[in-house]
Amino acid sequence: MIFFDIDATLLDHESAEKKGAIDFYKKYADELECSENELVDMWFELSKKYFEKFLSNELTFQEQRRFRIKDIFGYHLNDLQADNIFNNYLILYKRNWSVFEDVVPCLVALKQQGIRLGVISNGNYQQQFEKLESVGIDHYFEHIFTSSEIGVAKPNPSIFQKACMQAKAQLRKSIYVGDRLETDAIGSNKAGMVGVWLNRKKHKSNSGVKVIHSLLELTSIETER
Fold it and tell me: What are the extents of the domains in the chain?
């Protein structure tokens, strides 16, 4: 069985987030004391900072969204005001959801080979499923597991092990594919899976894990069906 990460593996999250932030800036430019580029950089920084706090259970999913907005607009905002502003960003972000060009051909080829497919993702189940559904690829996956459901986040070995157990997939014969070397490839390797690093940008590394540069390379990998 092959499991996939979602953001930056299947879905071009970075592009969607950047375009969403640019559109967000245009909507709120009169209220912001920064340039478009500064807002985009700030958005990426705050997104990473507070999402990590969500993954470590320091903040709820909604709280990490609120803190991003309050850091930008000020802590005079109440929670409802912050939620409303974030929802406006969310609309713009969702408009830009799209998959990489190699995603659908890869999934089609793997399904034709009779290979079972699943997802293991850090994040909120509802939003992650919505992403897959919105871009039209949810039906390729038998199981979709997220950290919000499992209770721990990647690279904790438990999320990989519990996902395989619930999917009735043999851990050591299952493959996990993701764009983050430490979190995805090395993390799943340590859990007992075959970790594969999707290195789209061809960064150099001597990690020892299997590396691919396109999802289409998965069609030649041997795995349990």
Answer: 2-12+99-220, 13-95
